[in-house]
Design a protein that fits this description.
The complex is a heterodimer of chains A (117) and B (134). By secondary structure, chain A is α/β, with parallel strands linked by helices. Chain A is built from four helices and six strands. Classes of the chains: A alpha/beta (117), B alpha+beta (134). Chains A and B meet through helix 2 and helix 3 of A and helix 1, helix 2 and helix 4 of B.
Protein backbone atom coordinates (compact mmCIF):
# COMPACT_ATOMS: atom_id res chain seq x y z
CA UNK A 1 0.00 0.00 0.00
CA UNK A 2 1.24 3.48 -0.76
CA UNK A 3 -0.16 6.76 0.48
CA UNK A 4 0.50 10.22 -0.92
CA UNK A 5 -1.16 13.49 0.00
CA UNK A 6 -1.02 16.88 -1.65
CA UNK A 7 -2.60 20.21 -0.77
CA UNK A 8 -4.25 22.16 -3.58
CA UNK A 9 -5.38 25.39 -1.93
CA UNK A 10 -7.40 24.28 1.08
CA UNK A 11 -8.23 20.88 -0.43
CA UNK A 12 -6.28 17.78 0.59
CA UNK A 13 -5.89 15.31 -2.26
CA UNK A 14 -5.27 11.76 -1.06
CA UNK A 15 -3.82 9.08 -3.29
CA UNK A 16 -4.04 5.56 -1.93
CA UNK A 17 -2.59 2.68 -3.94
CA UNK A 18 -3.52 -0.99 -3.59
CA UNK A 19 -6.43 -2.24 -1.53
CA UNK A 20 -8.77 -0.44 0.84
CA UNK A 21 -10.03 -3.34 2.93
CA UNK A 22 -10.21 -4.61 6.50
CA UNK A 23 -6.48 -5.42 6.44
CA UNK A 24 -5.31 -2.02 5.18
CA UNK A 25 -7.93 0.22 6.80
CA UNK A 26 -6.00 0.82 10.08
CA UNK A 27 -3.09 2.35 8.14
CA UNK A 28 -5.39 4.38 5.87
CA UNK A 29 -7.31 5.72 8.88
CA UNK A 30 -4.13 6.68 10.71
CA UNK A 31 -2.75 8.64 7.76
CA UNK A 32 -6.01 10.42 6.90
CA UNK A 33 -6.98 11.28 10.47
CA UNK A 34 -3.54 12.86 10.99
CA UNK A 35 -4.51 15.32 8.24
CA UNK A 36 -8.01 15.80 9.71
CA UNK A 37 -6.49 16.57 13.14
CA UNK A 38 -4.42 19.32 11.52
CA UNK A 39 -7.69 21.04 10.61
CA UNK A 40 -8.34 19.94 7.01
CA UNK A 41 -12.02 19.46 6.17
CA UNK A 42 -12.03 19.29 2.36
CA UNK A 43 -10.77 16.07 0.84
CA UNK A 44 -10.56 14.48 -2.58
CA UNK A 45 -9.70 10.81 -2.86
CA UNK A 46 -7.79 9.93 -6.02
CA UNK A 47 -8.89 6.29 -6.40
CA UNK A 48 -7.04 5.66 -9.67
CA UNK A 49 -4.64 3.20 -8.03
CA UNK A 50 -7.14 1.43 -5.74
CA UNK A 51 -7.65 -2.08 -7.09
CA UNK A 52 -9.78 -3.60 -4.32
CA UNK A 53 -12.29 -2.29 -1.80
CA UNK A 54 -14.51 -4.08 0.71
CA UNK A 55 -17.36 -2.98 2.99
CA UNK A 56 -14.94 -2.16 5.83
CA UNK A 57 -12.97 0.17 3.54
CA UNK A 58 -16.24 1.76 2.38
CA UNK A 59 -17.34 2.12 6.02
CA UNK A 60 -14.24 4.15 6.83
CA UNK A 61 -14.69 6.65 4.01
CA UNK A 62 -18.42 6.94 4.86
CA UNK A 63 -17.67 7.80 8.51
CA UNK A 64 -15.01 10.24 7.34
CA UNK A 65 -17.54 11.87 5.00
CA UNK A 66 -20.08 12.25 7.83
CA UNK A 67 -17.50 13.71 10.19
CA UNK A 68 -16.28 16.21 7.57
CA UNK A 69 -19.78 17.30 6.57
CA UNK A 70 -20.49 18.09 10.23
CA UNK A 71 -17.53 20.47 10.01
CA UNK A 72 -18.98 21.98 6.79
CA UNK A 73 -16.35 20.10 4.79
CA UNK A 74 -16.67 17.20 2.37
CA UNK A 75 -15.00 14.04 1.10
CA UNK A 76 -15.20 13.64 -2.67
CA UNK A 77 -14.12 10.68 -4.74
CA UNK A 78 -12.41 10.76 -8.13
CA UNK A 79 -10.93 8.40 -10.75
CA UNK A 80 -12.81 5.24 -9.75
CA UNK A 81 -11.62 2.29 -11.82
CA UNK A 82 -13.54 -0.71 -13.22
CA UNK A 83 -14.00 -3.19 -10.37
CA UNK A 84 -14.05 -0.58 -7.60
CA UNK A 85 -16.55 1.46 -9.60
CA UNK A 86 -18.78 -1.63 -9.72
CA UNK A 87 -18.68 -1.86 -5.90
CA UNK A 88 -19.75 1.81 -5.67
CA UNK A 89 -22.63 0.98 -8.04
CA UNK A 90 -23.95 -2.02 -6.14
CA UNK A 91 -23.72 -0.26 -2.77
CA UNK A 92 -25.39 2.86 -4.22
CA UNK A 93 -22.62 5.09 -2.87
CA UNK A 94 -23.06 7.48 -5.79
CA UNK A 95 -26.04 8.80 -3.80
CA UNK A 96 -23.86 9.59 -0.80
CA UNK A 97 -20.58 10.77 -2.32
CA UNK A 98 -19.87 13.32 -5.00
CA UNK A 99 -17.96 11.26 -7.58
CA UNK A 100 -15.81 12.84 -10.32
CA UNK A 101 -14.02 11.53 -13.39
CA UNK A 102 -10.77 13.27 -12.46
CA UNK A 103 -9.04 14.94 -9.53
CA UNK A 104 -9.06 18.45 -11.03
CA UNK A 105 -12.85 18.43 -11.47
CA UNK A 106 -13.29 17.30 -7.86
CA UNK A 107 -10.97 20.04 -6.52
CA UNK A 108 -12.63 22.66 -8.74
CA UNK A 109 -16.07 21.68 -7.41
CA UNK A 110 -15.08 22.96 -3.93
CA UNK A 111 -14.22 26.37 -5.43
CA UNK A 112 -17.45 26.51 -7.44
CA UNK A 113 -19.46 25.83 -4.32
CA UNK A 114 -17.65 28.68 -2.54
CA UNK A 115 -18.44 31.07 -5.43
CA UNK A 116 -22.15 30.16 -5.29
CA UNK A 117 -22.26 31.25 -1.64
CA UNK B 1 -11.28 -29.64 -7.49
CA UNK B 2 -11.94 -28.89 -3.87
CA UNK B 3 -9.95 -26.86 -1.35
CA UNK B 4 -10.55 -26.60 2.37
CA UNK B 5 -8.57 -24.70 4.97
CA UNK B 6 -9.06 -22.79 8.19
CA UNK B 7 -7.93 -19.37 9.35
CA UNK B 8 -8.29 -17.52 12.63
CA UNK B 9 -10.64 -14.55 12.76
CA UNK B 10 -8.12 -11.85 11.80
CA UNK B 11 -8.35 -9.40 8.89
CA UNK B 12 -4.62 -9.87 8.21
CA UNK B 13 -5.56 -12.97 6.16
CA UNK B 14 -7.39 -10.91 3.53
CA UNK B 15 -4.41 -10.47 1.16
CA UNK B 16 -3.82 -14.23 1.38
CA UNK B 17 -7.48 -14.97 0.53
CA UNK B 18 -7.25 -12.78 -2.55
CA UNK B 19 -4.06 -14.48 -3.71
CA UNK B 20 -5.68 -17.85 -3.07
CA UNK B 21 -8.61 -17.07 -5.40
CA UNK B 22 -6.12 -15.96 -8.09
CA UNK B 23 -4.36 -19.31 -7.67
CA UNK B 24 -7.68 -21.21 -7.92
CA UNK B 25 -8.36 -19.35 -11.16
CA UNK B 26 -4.96 -20.36 -12.57
CA UNK B 27 -5.45 -24.00 -11.51
CA UNK B 28 -8.92 -24.11 -13.05
CA UNK B 29 -7.67 -22.91 -16.44
CA UNK B 30 -8.73 -19.25 -15.97
CA UNK B 31 -12.41 -20.08 -15.73
CA UNK B 32 -13.03 -17.02 -13.58
CA UNK B 33 -11.09 -14.41 -15.56
CA UNK B 34 -9.99 -11.04 -14.14
CA UNK B 35 -13.49 -9.77 -13.28
CA UNK B 36 -14.50 -13.17 -11.86
CA UNK B 37 -11.42 -13.25 -9.61
CA UNK B 38 -12.37 -9.81 -8.27
CA UNK B 39 -16.00 -10.81 -7.67
CA UNK B 40 -15.22 -14.12 -5.96
CA UNK B 41 -12.42 -12.57 -3.89
CA UNK B 42 -14.73 -9.78 -2.74
CA UNK B 43 -17.52 -12.19 -1.82
CA UNK B 44 -15.09 -14.38 0.14
CA UNK B 45 -13.54 -11.37 1.90
CA UNK B 46 -17.01 -10.04 2.82
CA UNK B 47 -18.05 -13.43 4.21
CA UNK B 48 -14.86 -13.59 6.30
CA UNK B 49 -15.30 -9.95 7.46
CA UNK B 50 -18.85 -10.85 8.44
CA UNK B 51 -17.62 -13.81 10.50
CA UNK B 52 -14.99 -11.64 12.23
CA UNK B 53 -17.21 -8.64 12.95
CA UNK B 54 -20.62 -10.25 13.60
CA UNK B 55 -20.03 -13.89 14.52
CA UNK B 56 -16.92 -13.38 16.66
CA UNK B 57 -17.59 -9.69 17.52
CA UNK B 58 -14.04 -8.71 16.59
CA UNK B 59 -12.36 -11.48 18.66
CA UNK B 60 -9.24 -12.80 16.91
CA UNK B 61 -9.25 -16.33 18.40
CA UNK B 62 -12.23 -17.75 16.50
CA UNK B 63 -11.83 -20.25 13.66
CA UNK B 64 -13.20 -19.76 10.19
CA UNK B 65 -13.39 -22.79 7.88
CA UNK B 66 -13.27 -22.05 4.18
CA UNK B 67 -14.15 -24.45 1.38
CA UNK B 68 -14.01 -23.85 -2.35
CA UNK B 69 -15.36 -26.34 -4.85
CA UNK B 70 -14.57 -25.73 -8.50
CA UNK B 71 -17.22 -27.15 -10.80
CA UNK B 72 -17.55 -27.06 -14.59
CA UNK B 73 -20.14 -24.29 -14.59
CA UNK B 74 -19.88 -22.78 -11.15
CA UNK B 75 -17.81 -22.26 -8.04
CA UNK B 76 -19.15 -23.02 -4.56
CA UNK B 77 -17.68 -21.13 -1.62
CA UNK B 78 -18.43 -22.01 2.00
CA UNK B 79 -17.45 -19.91 5.01
CA UNK B 80 -18.22 -21.51 8.38
CA UNK B 81 -17.86 -20.22 11.94
CA UNK B 82 -18.97 -21.18 15.44
CA UNK B 83 -19.82 -17.67 16.65
CA UNK B 84 -23.15 -15.89 17.03
CA UNK B 85 -25.49 -16.45 14.09
CA UNK B 86 -27.47 -13.82 12.19
CA UNK B 87 -30.51 -13.48 9.99
CA UNK B 88 -29.41 -13.21 6.34
CA UNK B 89 -32.76 -11.93 5.02
CA UNK B 90 -33.05 -9.44 7.89
CA UNK B 91 -29.62 -7.98 7.13
CA UNK B 92 -30.44 -7.53 3.45
CA UNK B 93 -33.83 -5.98 4.34
CA UNK B 94 -32.09 -3.49 6.67
CA UNK B 95 -29.73 -2.45 3.87
CA UNK B 96 -32.63 -1.84 1.48
CA UNK B 97 -34.02 0.59 4.11
CA UNK B 98 -30.67 2.41 4.19
CA UNK B 99 -29.52 0.80 7.46
CA UNK B 100 -26.95 -1.79 8.50
CA UNK B 101 -23.71 -3.00 6.94
CA UNK B 102 -22.96 -3.44 3.26
CA UNK B 103 -21.12 -6.78 3.39
CA UNK B 104 -24.02 -9.19 2.92
CA UNK B 105 -25.84 -7.03 0.34
CA UNK B 106 -22.56 -6.98 -1.67
CA UNK B 107 -22.42 -10.78 -1.52
CA UNK B 108 -26.10 -11.02 -2.51
CA UNK B 109 -25.50 -8.74 -5.51
CA UNK B 110 -22.43 -10.64 -6.73
CA UNK B 111 -23.39 -14.28 -6.23
CA UNK B 112 -26.01 -16.33 -8.08
CA UNK B 113 -27.23 -17.98 -4.83
CA UNK B 114 -26.53 -17.31 -1.17
CA UNK B 115 -27.64 -19.57 1.63
CA UNK B 116 -27.00 -19.38 5.37
CA UNK B 117 -27.19 -22.57 7.42
CA UNK B 118 -27.16 -22.51 11.20
CA UNK B 119 -26.26 -25.38 13.49
CA UNK B 120 -23.21 -26.54 15.40
CA UNK B 121 -21.40 -24.46 12.83
CA UNK B 122 -22.98 -21.58 10.94
CA UNK B 123 -22.16 -21.65 7.27
CA UNK B 124 -22.61 -19.11 4.51
CA UNK B 125 -22.70 -20.87 1.14
CA UNK B 126 -22.29 -18.86 -2.03
CA UNK B 127 -22.57 -20.00 -5.63
CA UNK B 128 -20.89 -18.13 -8.46
CA UNK B 129 -21.55 -19.08 -12.08
CA UNK B 130 -18.74 -18.40 -14.55
CA UNK B 131 -21.12 -16.64 -16.92
CA UNK B 132 -22.11 -14.09 -14.21
CA UNK B 133 -19.16 -11.77 -14.85
CA UNK B 134 -21.12 -8.72 -15.98
Amino acid sequence: MRFESEEIGDVAVLKWSGSLDAASVPEFKKKVYEIVEKGASKFVLDASQIDFVDSIGLGVIISLLRRLRQKKGDFKVSCLQGDVKMVFDITRLYKLFEVYEDVDDAVRSFRQRRKKK
Amino acid sequence: MCFTFSITSRPTYIPFLRRFISAVDRLSGRRLGKRGVFIVSLALVEAVNNAIVHAYKGRSDGWIDISIKVGFKHLLIGVAETGAGFCLKGRIRRFSKGKGGRGLPIIRALMRDVEYRTGKKNQLIMRYCYDDKE
